Amino acid sequence: DDEHALIAAYAGTLRQRRSSAGGCSGYATAAAAATAAARQQMQLLEDENRRLQAEYEQLKNSTTSSSACIVSRAPPPPPPQLPPVSPAPLASAGDGGAAEARMLRAHKGRLEARMSLLEEHNRQLEGQLARLRRMLSASPGQSQQQQQP
């Protein structure tokens, strides 16, 4: 009888553990889903960061190589300040359309600011190109004399 009582007590302990683990499994599943979503969001942000860093380096290299060729009297104007990027607010199920609209408006604003920045950069590059063409057309004899010796 002592062995049977011991086995029954052990089985009761196992049932209690399973029932308490079953109550927490919903929480554990939700926590795992939240963790997976956070990891996915973090991966997306890291990818976006790498892409932006590469674009920044490309723009930086093209700017330094362009400015090395042309001597200007005044430094170029500073780039316009872009609006701060804020994370999209979490919205409830009924507020999804409004939240998406806010997010799209914010994204549109960022794109428009970037477009104006790129247009300004394009104007600067066109000006530099025009100056270089004038320099080349103004001194064709000098460049031919330098190439012959």
Automatic annotation (TrEMBL):
Chain intervals for the UniProt region annotation (Disordered): 59-107, 129-149
One GO CC annotation: plasma membrane
Organism in which the protein naturally occurs: Macrostomum lignano
Domain of life: Eukaryota
Biased composition (Pro residues): 74-87
Keywords: Calcium, Cytoplasm, Cytoskeleton
Annotated Polar residues bias: 59-69
Annotated compartments: Cytoplasm
Official protein name in the record: Dystrobrevin beta
